[in-house]
Amino acid sequence: MSTLSARAKEELASLPPKNKYEALAELSALVQTAGSVNLSGRGTTVSVVTDNAALPSLAARLALTLMLRPPAATFGKHITLTFEDGKELLVRLKVFTPAMTRITGIDAGLLRSGAEKRCYVRGAFLGAGFLSTGKNNHMEFAFSGEKLRDDFIELLPPSASPVGVGMRGGRSTAYLKSKEKISDTLIFMGATKAALELQEEMLVSSIGRRASAAQNCDVANIDRAVDAAAKQIAAIDKIDSVVGLESLDEKLRTTALLRKGCPEANIGELAEMLGVSKSCAAHRLDKLTKTAEKLGE
Questions:
Q1: Helix and strand counts by DSSP (H, E) for the chain
Q2: Which of 20, 31, 81, 277 could form a disulfide with 35 if both were Cys (CB 3.0 to 4.6 A apart)?
Q3: What is the separation of C-alpha 204 from the centre of its chain, rounded to a whole number of angstroms?
């Protein structure tokens, strides 16, 4: 059974690039976060390792949109995507300069519009992101350095702020801890189905909390009513044993006898049986309790 994280990645990988600028931003983020550079006698290649079965197709679409050679896919325990023209790829994606120096942050030329920013965030999640929900809500993106991570945080929607930062396995991380922030970020990236699934989970959880609170409130009310009835009956028994219930006026005596005969009844039910208001019934019971207290003085 796939996780919400896997389903979100499958959904994002199914979104085709609308133009070469969006393709450039998304593929750059994917390579920046998940790519490794390999040097050999055959030249420079770039590899991306993934478990997302939909990613080879997306990577091929992104490369073709940019008029680059699509990666070769090798299937084993994991899927390895290998780009043969590594140097050209890294320079085109603004991961390295033409002199083959690593660019530490995100090149501003990649992010000319809001759509390109969304595509970069999408690529970063596909490359080195994950999310988990339930008892511990967590969405995380991992980067090779703090500058890249900090530049990335600036791309997230305002509703995601503040964003947590940390380190995991020698990589700089940015993370979100609330379902609301995670849902907003999923929508920002384009994973609307995953966001709806998460929002449904939030709704069910909210209803469950309210039902539990209502149940707890009902139980507490019942407990209080039982305690009050027990004290009232104890007071009535004391009056009966000391001076007798016949010493009470007719209204109080009737109320006392009814309370003893119906110990489980609440104030509203007693009032209805007596043909009086709830406040009147409560006043009579309170008077019985005070009468018993005076007898003990």
A1: 11, 8
A2: 31
A3: 12
Partnered with residue 173 across adjacent β-strands are: 142, 166
The domain defined by 4-190 carries CATH number 3.30.1140.32? no
Contacts of 8 by beta carbon, 8 Å cutoff, 6+ apart? 125, 131, 186, 191, 194
- Distance of alpha carbon 2 from alpha carbon 10, whole angstroms: 10
> For residues 26 and 149, what is the distance between their CA atoms, to the nearest angstrom?
16
Could you give the count of Cα atoms lying within 13 Å of 18 in the half-sphere of its Cβ?
A: 7
pLDDT in tens, the chain (297 residues): 478 888 889 999 999 888 999 999 999 999 999 988 887 767 888 888 888 888 999 999 999 999 999 999 899 889 999 998 888 889 999 999 998 888 889 998 899 899 999 999 999 999 999 998 877 889 999 999 999 999 999 999 998 889 999 999 899 999 998 888 888 899 899 988 888 887 776 565 555 455 555 555 555 555 576 777 788 888 888 888 888 888 888 888 878 887 777 777 788 877 877 778 888 888 888 888 888 888 866
